[in-house]
């Protein structure tokens, strides 16, 4: 018997025929490109990949790929993805989110997903703003940033997702910049290959509500040192860097979540014996 | 993109493959920009980007023909990518705007062509392979011609007034 | 004097007296002696050391409810026993056994005594102290078993089976205590005698409603569960966690109910039938995602073991007041399934059938169990096997472009399971086209709303949608765990010469107007019975079904259940 060998897909083949509604200039176009390039690099068949998301600009990404996708409710993508991966460990599960979806309404799931360390990759497109609802402050918005909902700024210290991921047990932590799609793609490749829960914070500018973020492309720079497997060292570095350090910052060796679905060891009829008298 | 960041050119096949890939990347990028403009109802720009995509497609085909027996598509796939930045002729997606004018599009195209020119010039300067150097020179000339062409086109489309990005409607909240 | 078909016993105690252990062993002993029975419990708010009551009804036939009055009350002590006054109704014929050193009997007991009830002292604590490792609850067990007429050997065998693992000394200590109880009760007459057990032909089971629910779930095909602990649903999860592993499935403990519902949606999207179990507060947290599962057409099953609400309410006690939120809680027009089991044993059937329906219809389903059914334990005959096993219409040979939400036919469109080549689609909570592409168009919105409604409305649910028994001009319309009490009331009314019909819908949503009308044909009066404060079930019936002019509603919030005698009285008062 000979199995039919399918040629590997090219990046363009991981794109669907659905055209994005993102604003021209949005960093998320680049992220989509990074996804398709990473999937091609990994040589994964599109039907073996599931891209899971919540609500927000970034969460529109699943339908723009030719993979299986789930565009769920706001903030719950990690939970949905956890259920999928535990039930179907054969699939490659990639979760896409944004700073509102992932860090605000989905903040609790973020912590527990890191802790649970299920083998999947979590990509957050962080633009420090709620784009879909017209520019309200998100957990990563700077304290002085003025919006209609927070005149004069929130005055609140921004959330530090990378440090929270480390403290909660994520097994791979990286920061990327959307404007470097090849570099981002290679980080995604590494993240997918790394066992356990991989977290990538992608700085992805919002041209509509944060035109100032166009400057990011001149601010980003490669991380000066190699990734460490020491979470303490990694968090000290991340806590003290300028927020534009790009690259893989931490590669852990924690054992990933184990309780996936497996082989049955008992027949259904055997289970009811405990009720017999 | 920095010219030094690009893939190493060790043979004529490498050069043809990369030249082909640069044009193919440009086609993909202009097509994407045309689609963005379609979605955001900017028909003038749909046409500009489609035209640019078509022109780059023709270039890509020319290179494929020039390469003769070398399968540029297969060869390009084996080659390294631009690690940090993007391929030289990939127009900057971050510079796109839903109200952009043909002038903006041509400015993007100009940057792309200049980057391609710089890349091939860098190959000419750094290669020790005579055949590669000769061929790279040809590409430099072609790209220079493209740069001139974009400059000529820019004369037809003057810089728009400062108000080009004004939209009297507010953004529409979604989801 | 002829024997009785059932006898009701309450055992109360506190501070680690082992009341519930004694109750459990008594049910097992009665079952071993050939009787049937039900055991439920009422407990205080303490995690350990609280007051507890084991409420039993031992019977010659399987029983689904406890009685309105108790024939026997055994108090290991009287500390805080007054808290059970409202739940343990005494009659002038009740025999009360109390420990004179265990405090003063509550006013309810002295009042019953004034009406004729007997109080007999047995110094259980003192007797226990005189024995090596003696336990007062075991003495109480011996007393109760003796009064019910359970053979001493039956109990000895049971103690060996239960405590054998702890060693001979433990078995012996318990046997001595039980024997002392038998001895202490030797001269006491209960005043009522249970008929001899009938010969049982099939296998006997001892099972709780929550266990039956879990077993029904896996029989129906559930292989994935995700949940957050909540009383009184946790036993479902505790049964599923090890047993799903054995079946090749798994249970994932979630960080909250928002996560658990989304986890099961994810697993089911992956092709694995999935379930969560919760109670009212958890169900409220899950509502948004139930809308997602409705829109994305992902089958899931949510078990709500109802407790007193709103808010934290009474976590350990029963109510039927989640009916409104289960049916109407979802935002938007969101057709889904709501079913309710009608007894402990029916938790198995209804859950299994629900899994079948959810999978067949690609829709979320809520099962409304309650604390009474969920935590009650019964001695029953092994429930019959049923053929309802979840089967999903999947897309295999897929022509491009794949239309996940294709219209037409039976409105159930084949679902592609991830991994299937050519079936790639994005499950979508936004209004979408047949392909699943987001749209805000009126026609697409309408078409998909129609599709989701039609697939439920056009399905043939068969006869299981309701229990319909008897005939007559009066119908008792009831649901959930009160069905058993209503059935007994109807049976009693028949014996009293009143013709009464029992109508208990198992499928609450979508409604079945034609079938309901047929069930009420010839009925002139309807007695609605439900455990809610605001008569939610009555309002639901009024909204969706045609009722005769004459409607009487017997409703009360939890935790006081509505017993067969009370329903019977309501029927008879009305029919005379």
Structure notes:
The complex is a heterotrimer of chains A (277), B (175) and C (576). Chain A has 277 residues and is of the alpha/beta class. Chain A has helices at residues 27-42, 61-64, 77-87, 99-105, 107-116, 161-168, 181-193, 216-219, 231-240, 268-271, and strands at 49-53, 68-71, 92-98, 120-126, 172-177, 197-203, 221-222, 245-251. Chain A has one domain: Thiamin diphosphate (ThDP)-binding fold, Pyr/PP domains (Rossmann fold), CATH 3.40.50.970. Chain A has an eight-stranded mixed beta sheet, with helices on both faces. In chain A, helix 1 packs across helix 7 (181-193) and helix 4 (99-105) packs across helix 5. With 175 residues, chain B is an all-alpha fold. Chain B has a single domain, classed as Ferritin, core subunit, four-helix bundle (Ferritin). Chain B has helices at 12-39, 43-66, 72-78, 102-126, 130-156. In chain B, helix 1 (12-39) crosses helix 3, helix 2 runs parallel beside helix 4 and helix 4 (102-126) runs antiparallel to helix 5 (130-156). In chain C, 37% of the residues lie in helices and 20% in strands. Chain C has helices at residues 19-32, 107-114, 124-129, 136-148, 152-163, 168-184, 209-220, 234-246, 257-269, 280-296, 323-328, 344-361, 371-375, 442-457, 483-495, 513-519, 536-544, 564-575, and strands at 6-13, 36-43, 52-59, 70-75, 90-98, 118-121, 204-208, 224-227, 250-253, 274-278, 300-306, 337-339, 364-370, 377-381, 426-428, 466-470, 474-478, 500-505, 507-509, 525-530, 550-555. Chain C has an eight-stranded mixed beta sheet with strand order 6-5-4-1-3-2-14-7. In chain C, strands 9-8-10-11-13-12-19 form a seven-stranded mixed beta sheet, sandwiched between helices. In chain C, strands 16-18-17-20-21 form a five-stranded mixed beta sheet, with helices on both faces. In chain C, a hairpin with an 8-residue loop joins strand 2 and strand 3. In chain C, helix 1 (19-32) crosses helix 5 (152-163). At the A-C interface, strand 1, strand 2, helix 3, helix 5 and helix 10 of A face helix 1, strand 7, helix 7, helix 8 and strand 9 of C. Strand 2 (68-71) of chain A pairs parallel with strand 15 of chain C.
């Amino acid at each position: 018997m000979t199995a039919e060998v399918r040629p590997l897909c090219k990046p363009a083949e991981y794109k669907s025929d659905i055209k994005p509604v993102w604003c021209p200039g949005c960093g998320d176009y680049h992220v989509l490109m990074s996804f398709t390039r990473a999937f091609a690099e990994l040589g994964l068949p599109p039907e073996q990949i599931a891209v899971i998301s919540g609500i927000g600009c970034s969460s529109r990404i699943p339908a723009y790929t030719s993979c299986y996708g789930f565009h769920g409710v706001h903030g719950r993508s990690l939970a949905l993805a956890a259920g999928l991966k535990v039930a179907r460990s054969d699939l490659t599960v990639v979760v896409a989110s944004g700073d509102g979806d992932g860090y605000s309404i989905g903040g609790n799931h973020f912590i527990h997903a890191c802790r649970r360390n299920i083998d999947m990759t979590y990509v957050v497109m962080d633009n420090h703003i709620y784009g879909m609802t017209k520019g309200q402050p998100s957990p990563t918005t700077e304290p002085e940033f003025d919006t209609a909902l927070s005149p004069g700024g929130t005055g609140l210290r921004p959330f530090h997702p990378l440090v929270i991921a480390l403290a909660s047990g994520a097994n791979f932590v990286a920061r990327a910049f959307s404007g470097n799609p090849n570099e981002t793609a290679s980080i995604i490749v590494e993240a997918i290959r790394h066992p356990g829960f991989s977290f990538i914070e992608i700085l992805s500018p919002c041209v509509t509500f944060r035109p100032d973020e166009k400057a990011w492309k001149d601010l980003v720079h490669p991380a000066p040192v190699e990734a460490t497997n020491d979470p303490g060292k990694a968090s000290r570095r991340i806590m003290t860097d300028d927020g534009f350090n790009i690259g893989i910052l931490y590669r852990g060796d924690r054992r990933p979540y184990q309780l996936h679905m497996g082989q049955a060891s008992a027949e259904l009829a055997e289970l009811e014996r405990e009720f017999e008298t | 993109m920095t010219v030094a960041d690009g893939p190493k050119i060790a043979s004529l096949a490498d050069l043809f493959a990369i030249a082909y890939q640069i044009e193919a990347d440009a086609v993909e990028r202009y097509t994407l920009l045309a689609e963005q403009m379609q979605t955001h109802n900017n028909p003038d720009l749909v046409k500009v980007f489609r035209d640019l995509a078509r022109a780059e497609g023709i270039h890509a085909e020319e290179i494929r023909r020039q390469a003769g027996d070398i399968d540029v598509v297969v060869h390009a796939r084996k080659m390294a990518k631009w690690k940090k930045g993007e391929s030289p002729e990939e127009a900057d997606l971050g510079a796109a705007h839903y109200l952009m004018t043909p002038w903006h599009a041509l400015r993007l195209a100009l940057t792309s062509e200049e980057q391609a020119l710089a890349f091939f010039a860098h190959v000419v300067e750094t290669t020790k392979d005579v055949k590669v150097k000769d061929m790279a020179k040809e590409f430099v000339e072609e790209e220079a011609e493209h740069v001139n062409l974009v400059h000529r086109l820019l004369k037809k489309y003057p810089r728009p007034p400062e108000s080009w990005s004004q939209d009297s409607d507010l953004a529409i909240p979604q989801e | 004097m002829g024997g009785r078909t059932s006898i009701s016993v309450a055992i109360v105690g506190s501070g680690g007296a082992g009341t519930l252990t004694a109750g459990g062993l008594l049910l097992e002993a009665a079952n071993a002696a050939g009787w049937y029975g039900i055991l439920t419990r009422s407990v205080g708010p303490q995690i350990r050391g609280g007051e507890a009551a084991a409420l039993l009804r031992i019977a010659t036939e399987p029983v689904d409810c406890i009685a309105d009055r108790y024939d026997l009350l055994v108090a290991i002590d009287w500390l805080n026993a007054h808290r059970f006054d409202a739940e343990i109704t005494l009659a002038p014929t009740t025999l009360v056994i109390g420990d004179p050193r265990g405090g003063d009997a509550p006013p309810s007991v002295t009042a019953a005594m004034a009406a004729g009830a007997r109080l007999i002292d047995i110094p259980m604590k003192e007797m226990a102290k005189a024995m090596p490792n003696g336990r007062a609850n075991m003495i109480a067990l011996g007393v109760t078993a003796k009064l019910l007429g359970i053979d001493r050997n039956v109990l000895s065998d049971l103690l060996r089976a239960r405590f054998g693992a702890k060693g001979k000394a433990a078995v012996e200590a318990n046997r001595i205590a039980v024997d002392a109880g038998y001895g202490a009760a030797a001269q006491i007459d209960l005043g009522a005698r249970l008929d001899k057990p009938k010969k049982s032909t099939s296998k006997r089971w001892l099972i709780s409603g929550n266990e039956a629910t879990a077993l029904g779930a896996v029989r129906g095909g559930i292989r994935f569960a995700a949940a957050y602990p909540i009383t009184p649903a946790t036993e479902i999860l505790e049964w599923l966690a090890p047993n799903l592993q054995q079946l090749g499935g798994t249970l994932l403990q979630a960080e909250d109910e928002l996560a658990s519902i989304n986890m099961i949606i994810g697993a089911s999207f992956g092709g694995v039938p999935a379930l969560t179990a919760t109670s009212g507060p958890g169900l409220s947290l899950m509502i948004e995602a139930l809308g997602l599962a409705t829109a994305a057409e992902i089958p899931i099953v949510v078990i709500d073991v109802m407790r007193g609400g709103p808010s934290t309410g009474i976590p350990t006690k029963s109510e039927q007041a989640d009916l409104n939120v289960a049916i109407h809680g979802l935002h938007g027009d969101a057709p889904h399934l709501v079913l309710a089991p009608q007894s402990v044993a029916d938790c198995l059937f209804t859950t299994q059938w629900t899994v079948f329906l959810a999978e067949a219809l690609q829709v979320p389903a809520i099962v409304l169990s309650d604390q009474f059914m969920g935590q009650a334990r019964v001695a029953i005959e092994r429930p019959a096997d049923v053929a309802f096993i979840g089967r999903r219409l999947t897309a295999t040979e897929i022509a491009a472009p794949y239309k996940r939400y294709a219209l037409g036919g039976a409105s159930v469109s084949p679902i592609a399971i991830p991994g299937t080549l050519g079936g790639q689609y994005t499950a979508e909570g936004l209004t979408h086209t047949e392909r699943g592409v987001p749209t805000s168009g009126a026609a697409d919105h309408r078409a998909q709303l129609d599709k989701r409604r039609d697939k439920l409305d056009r399905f043939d649910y068969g006869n299981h949608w309701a229990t319909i028994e008897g005939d007559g001009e009066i119908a008792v319309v009831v649901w959930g765990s009160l069905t058993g009490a209503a059935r007994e009331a109807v049976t009693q009314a028949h014996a009293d010469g009143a013709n009464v019909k029992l109508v208990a819908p198992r499928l609450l949503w979508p409604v079945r107007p034609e079938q309901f009308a047929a069930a009420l044909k010839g009925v002139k009066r309807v007695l609605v019975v439900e455990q809610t404060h605001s008569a939610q079930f009555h309002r639901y019936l009024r909204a969706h079904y045609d009722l005769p002019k004459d409607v009487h509603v017997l409703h009360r919030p939890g935790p006081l259940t509505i017993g067969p005698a009370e329903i019977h009285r309501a029927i008879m008062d009305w029919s005379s």
